Amino acid sequence: xxxxxxxxxxxxxxxxxxxxxxxxxxxxxxxxxxxxFGIILxxxxxxxxxxxxxxxxxxxxxxxxxLTVVLFIELILSVIVVVFYQTPKLRHYLHSAPEEVFKxxxxxxxxxxxxxxxxxxxxxxIICVILARLFIRSIIKQRTRWQLLNEVTx
Length: 154
Hints:
This protein is mainly alpha-helical. The protein has helices at 2-15, 23-27, 30-54, 57-86, 88-94, 98-107, 113-153. It has 2 domains: 2-97, no CATH class; 112-154. The radius of gyration is 23 Å and the shape is extended. This is Tetraspanin. Keywords: Membrane, Transmembrane, Transmembrane helix.
């Protein structure tokens, strides 16, 4: 799976001939994010597979420690994001804000047709899922009301 994800990300990067002008433009590129995620996934699963097949304690411990490191990185990033957004004074003190990075990303949004189409597709899918959930919830509420009314009248 990791090899497939890496191959897809690399293929998307290869198809796009446009070069990044800034590091933030490169880092916000979905193909780069997909490729990096795939490479990390390949190495972690490789340690796990080879470690269990060969019953190698060192590789199994490496798998354990790498998964622990990934978990702690996710936790630390989550805490940083929450703290960063909850304290505007801290953002001003550090002279950095994620808003600036995303403002640049929005400016570059229409420069790349593939990125624009991909983000539009994701946004439409998210909207469709949200609307479907709201519709299902309203149907469930109406059905429970109808059942309650039927129980009262019978």
